[in-house]
Amino acid sequence: MSLETPRVGVLAFHTSPELRAIEGAISELGAVPVRLNEESLTLTAGDSGVSIEPDIDVCINRILLSTQSYPLDPIGVAHTISQAVPMINDPFATVRATHKFMTLSTLSEAGILVPASVCSLNHDRLFTSNKTLTESVVYKRAVGTHGSNVLQANRNNPPEPQFGDRLSLTQSRIKPPGDRWWDRRIYVVADSVIAAMDRFAAKTDWRANIARGGYAVDVTDDLDDVLVSLAVDATAAIGLDCAGIDLITDGDRWYVLEVNPTAGFKGLFSATGISPAPYIVALALDRISVSTDPEVLVKASKSMDEPTVSEM
């Protein structure tokens, strides 16, 4: 390392195995993890510019905007920090990724294939505005996580409004090959694919979420160059440094469903034996001109250990 004992901030207002794994990887790579949350963080601005307490050299943004009651507050915090130190996952790129239709429209404009979709505050128009929608559609809120607030619907027999005055969208429901519903999660850091898995829905569900009782299979070594490029290009189009890319195929073409800026990877690690955490940390260290030994990086990716030294 070219910088003596770097201090890597991890910005998050929640706790999770992934968060602890990132802090563990920071320790493993010889830096000091510094948790930035409501209990520890103070920001100041004045004649001398922006300052952060506790002191950090670089920051990894792990805010879950989809769970925030007042998301503009953490966005403001993250942006302020990004003015003072390099940040992994720009706060405004995370907004673009968290809002599902903003993601779809951005990808579409970039020439990346997405399912036909409609977004409207008018419930009836959700089911009539796009004639290319399949008869069976996915009906969901524009912001959500873990498959929550997601329903199946028939565009010819629309359901009653389900999400109050929240912005909603409909999307063509693409059926993948096989007897069970499944999709693919590809985890991207910088311009590289770290690991990938196919997620199969539980027998009684159509949503391929591990959090909803599904299971996963390692497909890291099965990806072709086209699919790798698609995942990397989707991450770049949204403006993120790292993301979990969700894709689905109809057997002929692959569609990008979502770009997850704070994607969980406990299930990915269970399926593949690879943790993205050290690769995220290595990217953060690279932003402050600190190099990482590739052998140490690979070794660190084989576990999701918690930090040995940290500041909370």
UniProtKB/TrEMBL annotation:
Domain ATP-grasp per the UniProt entry, residue ranges: 104-285
Cellular component, GO, one term: cytoplasm
Coiled coil region boundaries: none
Keyword Nucleotide-binding in record: yes
PROSITE patterns: ATP_GRASP (PS50975)
A single MF term (Gene Ontology): ATP binding
Keyword flag rRNA processing: no
Alphabetical list of InterPro entries matching this protein: ATP-grasp, ATP-grasp_RimK-type
Keywords on record: ATP-binding, Nucleotide-binding
Pfam family, one: RimK
Gene3D superfamilies the UniProt entry points to: 3.40.50.20, ATP-grasp fold, B domain (3.30.470.20)
PANTHER family xrefs: BETA-CITRYLGLUTAMATE SYNTHASE B-RELATED, RIBOSOMAL PROTEIN S6 MODIFICATION PROTEIN
Name of the protein in question: ATP-grasp domain-containing protein
Species whose genome carries this gene: Natronocalculus amylovorans
